Amino acid sequence: METRFLFPHKYKKIGWILLIPSTIFGLFIMFTNFEPDWLKLPMFTFFSQGFPLADTDGTVWFSTIKTNVANEIAGVLFLISAMVVAFTKAKNEDEFITKIRLESLVWATFFHFGILLIGMLFVFDLEFFTFMIFNMFTLLILFIFKFNLALYKSKRL
Amino acid sequence: MKNNLKVERAIKDLTQDDLAKLIGVSRQTINAMEKNKYVPSTVLSLKIAKVFEKPVEDVFFLEETD
Known about the structure:
The structure holds two protein chains of two kinds.
Chain A: H1 11-32, E1 40-48, E2 60-68, H2 70-86, H3 95-122, H4 125-156
Antiparallel strand pairs in A: 1-2
Helix pairs in contact in A: 1-2, 2-4, 3-4
Chain B: E1 2-3, H1 5-12, H2 16-23, H3 27-34, H4 42-52, E2 60-61
Antiparallel strand pairs in B: 1-2
Helix pairs in contact in B: 2-3
């Protein structure tokens, strides 16, 4: 079946192989504040006010700042592999699987923003910032979970 | 919408997998249709009718609620 916006099936395995270590790495740097000095590198930025993470004097636009890239590496690895896992075609992508895909995406979107709503109302200050870091990824995580569960169920039906 | 896929499949002596391969869909899709959990597209209905060599109305039927 002709499907738009999906990667070929062959990339699914590579996606999973990348996703598992990058999830572990991401959680590891999140909980241990892993920021070794050798990962403090000059990075191009659109905009920075310096405080509290980067060390620039005041506000800068379109310039280079020094910042620790451990979280960038984890985030980029996780996002790319999760997107590949989420949006590669199933082995036999047909109209029924496309329907499951759409329903799972709607379900995941509801839950993702539902969690965000709850967080907005009940989590504040720096804790809200930490919450937001996790919330950036929940849409993809929820979708991957729900879609694969629905596929598995339909196989056993 | 209802269908008699299962009966037609038995007449032709086809498994779900055989039929799936003939029309280029996954086995889950055939299964979901037989369980009345999925209403196929027009293209898919026509393909199925073609395999059974029958008009599409002999394989798929409207229900009261449709």
